[in-house]
Specification:
Blueprint: E1 4-5, E2 10-12, H1 33-42, H2 48-51, H3 63-78, E3 82-84, E4 91-98, E5 106-117, E6 126-127, H4 134-147, E7 149-150, E8 154-158, H5 164-172, E9 179-182, E10 188-191, H6 197-207, E11 212-216, H7 218-233, E12 243-250, E13 257-259, E14 262-265, H8 273-280, E15 284-289, H9 295-312, E16 315-319, E17 325-330, H10 336-339, H11 345-348, H12 351-363, H13 368-372, E18 377-380, H14 383-391, E19 397-400, H15 406-414, E20 425-427, E21 437-438
Parallel strand pairs: 6-11, 8-12
Antiparallel strand pairs: 1-5, 2-3, 4-5, 4-10, 5-12, 7-21, 8-11, 9-10, 13-20, 14-18, 14-19, 15-17, 16-17, 16-19
Helix pairs in contact: 3-4, 4-7, 5-6
């Protein structure tokens, strides 16, 4: 069962920080060098100094980065830039946003922040849905050891068709938000506090039987597991490391949006468009689109075509520069079950699986190890940015996808099946710095 707990969140002191937007950040893996520099300019107390510190030229060890992060963090607590809540609470968290590329498409995604007891995947309470890489986990573990704090929430999905939990939260979150801030993507983030014990118990009880699917934050969850085990080995008896901070989102909610993450292929020794299409036609019906006078004019029409094709069956876009654009639909006579007979049926018709197995591996000859090491592959959400990389010669081919349905994420995760990395892009991201789980909080959990 999912064990949910309220906690005393550490947060920015409004008497010291009047403009919250200057100090909170996107999740660490979304902070590019350019974004990092901008955050540094925003405020000397911007959380980027802790979650993604700068390396100094005179560093003898990467440990210096984590020690500097810990010094910033502890100094901010000492100076009361960061302060703790007096009472344990759970924190309803709403995000009002516009879907990228769809002006006027206002949505609200509702959830809540709380602690959850860490469970090994083998217990089948918390389920991953994507593969992970080792390097980010090593980095996050060193930061966690140095700071003993979780600065961002892990985004998890739970099923609640009747919306019971959301209705319980709505009853308690009628007043003015405890925190509210608009981020650089014009998403409005609003957070409330629920401290009344009976109200908390109703939410905790309603969540007890839920299975949780990690939507975003696999590396952070696995880092938290590793730190829990490290504390046990070191004989640290405090059980606070047995918990991690999460934002819980109902998977049936209208406010849930998944965006596609497109693939950029590069550094292939002998790539050419005609040869690619020739090989692709053994598996796909390929329809070429030649009218590309203005990318902003044809791109919207092409993605509408891709979406319609995707409702009928697996479909992809392939773009290699001006007058090199094609829609690829899986051929009706292709023996998909035979080609992917090593995979369970729930994975065989999933676009992202077919892209990796049939296009990357079979047609382009990029083996799974090269994919994991990103030797020939990078990822991009927006098509204009992807097209610019093709135009600049940074990429040879851009492969375009439709979003992975949330039902596919749920069904495969609960069945113990994981998708390739970057199979989903849940939008918008959860801000880091709205609430911090401080494992050494002297006030208690």
């Amino acid at each position: 069962m999912a064990e949910i707990h309220p906690f005393r969140a550490l947060h920015y002191n409004p008497s010291r920080i009047q403009e919250l937007w200057r100090v909170v950040t996107q999740p660490y893996d979304k902070i590019s060098p350019e974004v990092q520099s901008r955050y540094y300019r925003c405020s000397p107390f911007n959380l980027v100094r802790v979650i993604r510190g700068q390396h100094h030229a005179d560093d003898n060890s990467l440990d210096n980065v984590y020690l500097r992060a810990a010094r910033h963090y502890r100094q901010w607590i000492e100076d009361r830039v960061l302060v703790s809540e007096a009472e344990p609470a759970i924190y309803p968290y709403d995000q009002e946003y516009e879907v990228p590329g769809w002006p006027g498409s206002k949505k609200v995604r509702r959830g809540f922040i709380a602690l959850c007891r860490l469970e090994d995947y083998s217990q089948r309470i918390v389920h991953p849905h994507e593969e992970t890489l080792s390097a980010p986990k090593t980095d996050r573990l060193e930061l966690l050891k140095a700071t003993r704090a979780h600065f961002g929430q892990i985004f998890v999905l739970y099923s609640d068709p009747t919306g019971l939990v959301e209705s319980l939260l709505a009853e308690e979150a009628q007043q003015k938000p405890w925190e509210q801030v608009s981020d650089e993507h014009n998403t409005l983030h609003s957070v409330w506090r629920i401290t009344e014990p009976r109200a908390i118990e109703r939410v905790v009880s309603a969540m007890a039987a839920k299975k949780l699917v990690i939507a975003d934050g696999h590396h952070r969850y696995e880092t938290a597991l590793a730190y829990r085990d490290y504390c046990r080995i070191q004989g640290i008896s405090d059980n606070r490391a047995d918990y991690v901070m999460m934002t819980f989102i109902r998977m049936e909610a209208d406010g849930l949006t998944i965006l596609p993450t497109h693939r950029l292929v590069h550094s292939l020794p002998a790539f050419n468009w005609a040869g690619f299409l020739s090989q692709a036609r053994l598996i796909f019906d390929a329809e070429e689109f030649a009218d590309q006078s203005d990318i902003h004019d044809w791109a919207e029409r092409f993605f509408e075509t891709l979406a319609r094709a995707g409702r009928e069956g697996p479909a992809f876009g392939a773009y290699a520069g001006p007058r090199k654009l094609a829609l690829l639909r899986l051929r009706s006579d292709f023996n998909l079950d035979g080609a992917l007979n090593d995979l369970p049926p729930t994975l065989r018709r999933l676009d992202v699986i077919l892209l990796h197995r049939l296009i990357l591996q079979q047609i382009l000859g990029i083996d799974p190890q090269a994919v994991r090491e990103e030797k020939n592959l990078t990822y991009c959400r927006g098509f204009p940015a992807a097209a610019a990389e093709v135009a600049d010669g940074e990429a040879q081919l851009c492969l375009l996808l439709n979003p992975t349905p949330v039902e596919a994420v749920r069904d495969n995760a609960l069945a113990g099946l994981v998708l390739p990395q970057k199979s989903t892009d849940f939008y918008p991201k959860l801000l880091s710095g709205l609430a911090i789980y401080w494992l050494d909080n002297p006030a208690g959990l």
